[in-house]
Amino acid sequence: MADPLGITASIFTITNVSRKVVGLCFRYSVAVRDAQNDIKCLQEEVEGIKNFLKNIQKLLKRPDVAQPSTSEEFQGPLKTCLSKLKELERRLELSKKRKAISGFEVPLLRLPFTSKEVEKAINKLDRCRRAISQALQVDQITLILGIELKTYLEKLPTAKGASFDSHMEDHNARCLENTRVELQNQITEWVEKPHDKCILWLNGMARTGKSTIARTVAQSFADKRQLGASFFFKRGKGDRGHAARVFTTIAA
Predict the structure, then answer these.
(1) Who's near 156: CB < 8 A, 6+ residues apart?
(2) Which residues form the Nephrocystin 3-like N-terminal domain (predicted)?
(3) Are 73 and 136 in contact (CB under 8 A)?
(4) Contact partners, residue 96, CB within 8 Å, separation at least 6
(5) What does the alpha-carbon distance between residue 4 and residue 56 come to, in Å, rounded to a whole number?
């Protein structure tokens, strides 16, 4: 999931830099008469980025909105946007500081971009905005689908107590230390061979320890985070006495 503080901080930084660039653009629009159209277009684009991200920031503060992920699809455009805005700020500030006319210190403002450079900057910022918007939409759709899937899974009929680590199985034994080691190793080797046969059948006469071995290896795989699911049948114990809810229990 998300690092909401990191995302919020990124957006906050971008809006601050945007505000500075908008202010600089305004100064140029007043002082540089021969490039007013270019500077106005740039100012409007940066202002649009600023307002767009401020709206996202407000949205993310709402308790009913899921936080976005920290995927590169979302963070990448934010980094690109910040980099471009900082470049604009640097060049506008540098030009603003240039002074000197015939020995007098007079502020001299000259737009440090050609019309093509302004157009290129606007297009890049627009692409960043669209990429951020698209990434956020995909992210939210993914989260919504995940919530819907979880809701569906919670509604599936399950066999209570079928998992190896359920409370109903607490009293059932595991293998004692250094017992059934060879058989446990065979099962472990089978698990670690992804291209081996898909089913391992542990069979034998009743009360020979099959369930004990199964619970032991299930616990071992769970400890190593290798266990997908478990289902322990039990004769005469409701839904655990038949296979009707095996797949729904595993899925849930």
Answers:
(1) 248, 249, 251, 252
(2) 185-251
(3) no
(4) 24, 27, 107, 109
(5) 12
Exposure string for 90-105, b = 16+ CB within 10 A, e = fewer = ebbeebbeeeeeeeee
Kindly give, in sequence order, each residue whose CB lies less than 8 Å from that of residue 230, ignoring residues fewer than 6 positions away.
Answer: 162, 163, 164, 165, 214, 218
User: pLDDT digit of tens for each residue in the chain (252 aa)?
Assistant: 445 557 788 889 999 999 999 999 988 888 777 778 888 999 999 999 999 999 888 877 777 666 666 566 778 889 999 999 999 999 988 766 555 444 444 455 677 888 899 999 999 999 999 988 888 887 777 777 777 778 888 888 989 888 888 877 777 788 888 899 999 999 999 988 888 888 889 888 888 889 899 999 999 999 999 998 999 988 888 899 899 998 999 888
Domains of the chain in start order, with CATH, are 4-155 (1.20.1260), 167-251 (no CATH)
Token pair of 29 as six digits:
């629009």
Cα separation of 235 and 3, whole Å? 48
252 burial type by CB count under 10 A (0-12 exposed, 13-18 middle, 19+ buried): middle
In the numeric block, the tokens 């320890």 are attached to: 209
